[in-house]
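Propose amino acids for all 92 sites.
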């Protein structure tokens, strides 16, 4: 936690930065905000977990074909989640 004096000094530095170089201040403000994850990414994560657990369960029951199918679904969902979290990256 910052003290009141440190908080005031930081506010003064930020104000001067905005006055002297608004473009840089805007860039820094955008960089501080973490990328937002939407609700769909949580659904992808849930799909990965459920498919992975079903793959392990089916493998324990002696059903390797079903386990492989669910493992493939989990892997596909993992790849889809990776592409959704980082929309700026290009996957060809």
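Proposal:
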């Amino acid at each position: 936690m910052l003290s009141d004096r440190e908080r005031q000094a930081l506010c003064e530095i930020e104000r001067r930065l905005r006055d002297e170089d608004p473009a840089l201040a805007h860039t820094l403000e955008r960089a501080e905000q973490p990328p937002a994850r939407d609700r769909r990414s949580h659904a992808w994560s849930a799909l990965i977990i459920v498919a992975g657990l079903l793959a392990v369960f089916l493998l324990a029951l002696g059903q390797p074909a079903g386990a492989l199918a669910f493992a493939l679904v989990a892997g596909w969902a993992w790849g889809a989640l990776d592409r959704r979290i980082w929309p700026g990256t290009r996957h060809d």
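The radius of gyration is 23 Å. Residues 1-33 form one domain.
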